[in-house]
Design goal:
Blueprint (H helix, E strand, L loop, with lengths): L2 H14 L7 H12 L7 H13 L3 H13 L2 H4 L1 H17 L3 H8 L11 H14 L3 H12 L7 H12 L4
Amino acid sequence: MDQDWEDRVTAAWAAFDDCAEEDGPAFRAVIDALADELPADSPLALFERACAWDSTGHSDRAVPLYREALAGGLAEASRHKARRAKIQLSSSLRNTGHPQEGVKLLSPELLAPSDELDDAVRATLALCLSSMGRDREGLALALGALAPHLPRYQRSMARYARLLVDPEA
């Protein structure tokens, strides 16, 4: 899509931060209007609609839209948005009682080329693991994601994270 459309989507999301919880339907209408400017099967339109449902407390409505966007070629349209979709879909799957699907979807992202979403991948995967009763693995991921951001103790926190899942390390 063109930059003007992307800018308008970005502006809509920036305005959402100031919305009250009861403004969800109005916000979804704004996103729907933007999505309607694209072809009906556009993975970008599906992604934005999924995000709007998800962000207004309807993970159940978001899940099929995220799946359709990914299956419809979101990665070809935007690698960044495809990675976001995987993170958000995994979170929604966890919220709807399917954390194991979230783990399956996000685990390969640990090996994907690094970007600013790496920590979000690890945090969401940690939540999915915890929802499955795999708290030590989740904590290890969370500590590993946090360690590089600490002003001190990066090495020791990274080591502690490894030791949670591999005591022989």
